[in-house]
Design goal:
Helix content: 25-40%
CATH architecture: 3-Layer(aba) Sandwich
Structural class: alpha/beta
Strand order of the largest sheet: 2-1-3-4-5
Number of domains: 1
Strand content: 5-15%
Distance between the termini: 10 Å
Shape: globular
CATH superfamily: Flavodoxin domain
Order of helices and strands: EHEHEHEHEH
């Protein structure tokens, strides 16, 4: 089984990236997609693909291929102004018209320094992925509150409950 994980944050010391990298450390089947910030802005004029051929920008073609080849897709998002980050929305926009994510089992993680754990971004991302994937594994999804107290300055998850929850998540997919 191949698992592709994507952090919706570009921040160097992102808590969401730390969570995704922890999943990779816990399970060698997890591949972390690192090209989020390099994807071009979505433009339907550049979205040139058919079932046989994809002539979209090369980074988009690569991203779609990685999502398509994965058995499970995990997306971890921070919350900005009660929304998912624009860069994450941009990446997901590139998947909308392709078959790469359709029916793909998808897990959502949100992590925030707030006591609510990014619940508004979480709900927004779940709703969006239900439209484009139609297979969100809500029982495996995770909301992480006060994440800054659970990950140290070296981007290592130090909270035992969060580590346990990540292991459970991996076992549920």
């Amino acid at each position: 089984m191949k698992i592709l994980a994507l952090s919706g944050s570009l921040r160097a010391n992102s808590y969401n990236t730390a969570i995704i990298k922890t999943l990779q450390h816990l399970d060698s089947r997890v591949e972390v997609y690192e090209g989020l910030g390099n994807l071009p802005l979505f433009n339907s004029d550049l979205d040139n693909h058919t079932l046989e051929e994809d002539n979209s920008p090369p980074l988009v073609v690569d991203f779609r291929a990685k999502v398509r080849e994965a058995d499970v897709f995990i997306v971890s998002t921070p919350e900005y102004a009660h929304q998912i980050p624009g860069v994450l929305k941009n990446a997901l926009d590139w998947l909308v018209s392709s078959d790469a994510i359709v029916a793909k089992p998808t897990v959502v993680i949100s992590a925030s320094t707030s006591a609510m754990g990014g619940d508004k971004a979480h709900a927004q991302l779940v709703a969006l992925l239900k439209v484009i994937s139609q297979n969100v594994l809500e029982e495996a999804s995770l909301v992480v509150s006060k994440v800054n107290k659970k990950i140290d300055e070296d981007s290592v998850v130090v909270d035992k409950e969060l580590l346990m929850n990540l292991k459970v998540l991996l076992n549920e997919i």
